[in-house]
Amino acid sequence: MPDIILKYQAEIWQSIGETFVMVGLSIAFALLVGLPVGTLLYLCRKGQLLENRSIYSGLNIFVNIVRSFPFLLLVVFLIPFTRFIVGTAIGTMAATVPLSIVAIAYYSRLVEQALLEIPRGIIESAVSMGASVLEIIFKFLFVEARSSLVLGLTTSTISFISYSTVMGIVGGGGVGDFAIRYGYQRFETELMIYIIVMMIIFVQAIQFTGTTIAKKLDKK
Amino acid sequence: MVISLQNISKSYQQHQSILQAVHSVSLNIDKGEIHGVIGASGAGKSTLLRLMNVLETPDQGTIVVNNQTLTTLPNRKLREARRSIGMIFQHFNLVSNKTVFDNVAVPLELTGYSKKAKVDRVNECLKFVGLEHKAEQYPAQLSGGQKQRVAIARALANRPAVLLCDEPTSALDPQTTAGILDVLKTVNQEFGVTIVIVSHEMDVVRSICDKVTVMDGGKILETVSIETEPYMIPDNDPKWFLEQLTEKERNSNA
Question: For this UniProt entry, which segments traverse the membrane (chain A) (predicted)?
Fold first, then answer.
């Protein structure tokens, strides 16, 4: 182990922990809120089971606005909201608020796209069997789209990691913030490169896991 | 009378114009009948079939199936009514991420079968279509004919009184078509299931139907009773194809 890493061991572990908290909560919100929102986006589209123009437009505009914000501006813009939700605008927990909102918008769009790939005939056969909307979602849509849903979550997770690296701006910490403060600002270039290499390995591992699971789930 | 359509119309908005797919059609189909619907593409035959289980909602008219007026049923009741109306499709529409067994099990899960009863019924249905040995395979591992057999097993699982078939053999080769038609005939004879079959293939309709409705431009031209003629199964021998091809050539040369 290089001396420089040993020297900053404690700080590195702490920043990894912060990244895990930020990214982990983002994944949780993507699944708990983004998945239902994406499903609703799909179902409320024109010609779909719950066709509803106002719900579709509302969600669609929300997703588009969040995704068109330059991320740093979104973080700053959301400070009053963050303070309202977690009581402070500074720190790792505060950083999860804008991250989770982006996570919801990002993943719901990918969910919508995954569901759109399902052939119409499958939904028709479900309706002809007398399935309710909830039964169609759980017994048909999610089963048929499961491998795209996993791939989408993999892509999202990697984006969340990337977003989380700039959370130093509100004191969120994390590996990216560590690399900037110790590696770049203290001219420890070697340390910065180690951190970058570590993140590359980490992202590769996530992508590999996601792709492997998706392949296993896909029987098409 | 198991299916009765009274004065049914259905139109679609297409950009600026309105397409009248079915135009004031009335049709009665008796219990135990195999009823064919034939016509050119765009004649409205598929729409007519999809109106019978209200997959398409009619603009006006009344649809009665199994003594239930589907057009006035509340959503929940309509879903229940659909469970006794099986349907199969040209492109089979199986869930590709479910095994053959699980595909057939879905309608039983919707009806709330117990686990044991479900397993028994799925096996019974798969045995009927001759695919009990494929239970653990996925649709992608099956041939077109086998997929349609699974779809038939799935449609029969809830013991429907009516089976709607939307171009069931149009994606299949002649040999496989003959096999599927045999299965449908057995379904009709053994279980007394009323079958409505939409097809553009004259041979198919002629070989299986007791009555045939001919459609044109969204209207019924006529409904006739017919004598069934056996479906001509072409020889599997490649020479047969050659003979057919060259014979045609000879005829046109003559």
Answer: 20-43, 55-79, 85-107, 149-171, 191-214
Spell out which residues of chain A touch residue B83, defining contact as CB-CB under 8 Å.
129-130
- Output the domain CATH number for residue A151: 1.10.3720.10
The 3-state DSSP class for residue B233 equals coil
- Distance from C-alpha of B65 to C-alpha of B84, rounded to nearest angstrom: 9
What are the two backbone dihedrals, phi and then psi, of residue B13, each rounded to the nearest 5 degrees? Answer: -80, 120
CA–CA distance, B217 with B21 (Å, rounded to integer): 7
Q: Which positions in chain B touch A136 (Cβ < 8 Å)?
A: none
Q: Which amino acid is at B153?
A: A
pLDDT of residue B243: 79
In terms of residue numbers, what domain contains A157? Answer: 3-217
Decide: A196 and A139 in contact? Cβ < 8 Å.
no
Which of A121, A147, A218 lies nearest to residue B89, judging by beta carbons? A121
Q: Each residue of B71-108: pLDDT tens digit?
A: 999 999 999 999 999 999 999 999 999 999 999 999 99
Both tokens assigned to A40: 């609703």
Split into its structural domains, chain A has a count of 1
